[in-house]
Amino acid sequence: MRKSATVVVAGLLMAFTAAGQAAAADCREKIDLAPTSAGVATDTSGKAEVRARGSRQRFKVSMDSRVADGTTYLVFANGLPAGTITIALGDGELELDSKYKGLPEGVDPVCGITTVDITDATGLVVLQGNF
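Above: the chain's sequence. Below: its structure in C-alpha cell form.
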C-alpha cells in the first residue's frame, strides 16, 4: 500500500511539474515599435508580436512606410537576423511560425525575444522595440 501511494504521489508531482513548465513556456505579447529619426523621415511605424502555446511558436512583425514598392527591410530579433520585409502599397509583414518551418536562431524560443530592430538596406535602424 505504501509503495502504491508513493508511486501515485510521484506521478502527480511529475504531472504538475510538466503542466507548470508548459504554462511557463506559453506567452503572448505585442508591442509598438518606435521609429528612429530615419523612420520618422519615411513615416514608418510598426508592431511586433510573440506568441507561444505548447510547442507552437509565432513571431510576427508588421510595418507601414512611405517608401517605394519593393523596398526591403531587415528584421533582427535579439541582434540576430530573423528575416526580411518587402513593402507593397505602403506596408509589409514578416511572420515566422514553427508550425510550417523551424525558427531561426535568435527567434527560438519566441518568449525569449527581448529586442526587435528593423533596418533599411544600408543598415540604418528605422524601428526598434523591447518586449
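The chain has one domain: 27-130.
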